[in-house]
Amino acid sequence: MRSKIVTINNFIQLKLLENSKRIVLKEAAKLLDELNILKDSVSSPGFPLRRLAQKKLIVGAYKEDGKWFIKKVDDYREILSSTEVAKLLKLKNRNSIYGYIRGHKVPYHQLANGQIVFLRDEFFNWMVHQKEKEKKERKRIFS
Q1: Which end of the chain is more exposed for a tag (fewer CB within 10 A), N or C?
Q2: Could you tell me which of 44, 43, 68, 45 has the C-alpha nearest to residue 58?
Q3: DSSP for 8-23?
Q4: What is the pLDDT of residues 107-121, one digit of tens each?
């Protein structure tokens, strides 16, 4: 589910970048359902997303006059889940990423709820730096 929360937050914030400052949570829930990102409740539209917002897992979610909204976060940085990072690093097992985290071998952030996330731009910059280090090391060895 944590990986799905990352996808949900990225989708909503990127959608808000296109045209508005905020979106009604029920509208966001409908979009997420249409794209098969988060199944909505037929009997209580918006409930699954609202539940995540109440747990403070949805970036920019707030309640105003009894109605839930999600606002655009101007300094929002797209995040990657540990599953996505493990795939990018070509690790066989998603749990292998936690060894990298324990050894502080990759840039990561731990959220208030304990979730580990990776900032997309920061991670890709780190990957480029790692590739450059590998090239220099190979050049040094074979020179």
Answers
A1: C
A2: 68
A3: HHHHHHHHHHHH-SEE
A4: 998 877 777 889 999
Is residue 141 scored above 90 in pLDDT? Answer: no
Tell which residue, 33, 35, 34, 36, has the closest CA to residue 49.
Answer: 33
**Region of residue 119 (left: phi > 0; alpha: psi -120 to 50; beta: else):** beta
Tokens of 28: 């966001």
Q: Is the pLDDT of residue 35 over 90?
A: yes
What does the domain layout of the chain look like in residue ranges? 2-71, 79-142
**Structure token pair of residue 65:** 């006059």
What is the chain's alpha carbon radius of gyration, rounded to the nearest angstrom? 19
Contact 49, 32 (CB under 8 A): yes
Other residues' Cβ atoms within 10 Å of the Cβ of residue 45: 16
CB 52 within 8 Å of CB 8? yes
Query: Residue 19 pLDDT more than 80?
Result: no
Spell out the CATH class of 79-142: mainly alpha
What is the enclosing helix (H) or strand (E) of 125?
Answer: helix 120-142
